[in-house]
């Protein structure tokens, strides 16, 4: 498995993955935020690749010098194999390189179910941001 930065050629595969994994409401919200993040800083969108195919995606952002994990998705056939944790760690390294003050997990109704993945990667309740912060509002 390889975790790398998003490339334009990944777009169709990622949109299909998100459509397959996310609820319709979550998909619509995520696609808008995904497009905005790509226009701001595509280096905070990482993909996991297995045998040349996209197996997962994680979208992050930086706001007010805080790094946020916004959305993570792993293809059903690749879940529970450490891909999510590998993408979380790779994005954590990006945040650390950018010298963010604090790294938080954005928690909304759509990603409550993946909080155990973040917990298994070492994040605890104090790292979960349940505010109305959304990738679509500001970025800096």
Describe the structure.
By secondary structure, this protein is of the alpha/beta class. It is 36% helix and 26% strand. The chain is built from four helices and six strands. It has helices at 11-21, 24-41, 83-97, 115-120, and strands at 2-5, 45-50, 53-63, 66-74, 102-106, 128-129. A six-stranded mixed sheet has the order 1-2-3-4-5-6, sandwiched between helices. A hairpin with a 2-residue loop joins strand 3 (53-63) and strand 4 (66-74). Helix 1 packs antiparallel against helix 2 (24-41). The longest helix has 18 residues, at 24-41. The protein is globular.
Q: Counting H and I runs of at least 4 residues, what is the number of helices?
A: 4
Overall shape: globular
**Helix fraction by DSSP (H/I, runs of at least 4):** 25-40%
Strand content: 25-35%
Mind summarizing the main beta sheet? 6 strands, mixed
Query: What would you call the structural class?
Result: alpha/beta
The low-pLDDT segments are 136-140
Order of helices and strands: EHHEEEHEHE
How many strands in all? 6
The neighbouring-strand order within the major sheet is 1-2-3-4-5-6
Question: Any idea what the radius of gyration is?
Answer: 14 Å
End-to-end gap? 31 Å
Give a quick summary of the entry:
With 140 residues, the protein is α/β, with parallel strands linked by helices. The protein is built from four helices and six strands; from the N terminus they run βααβββαβαβ. Helix 1 packs antiparallel against helix 2.
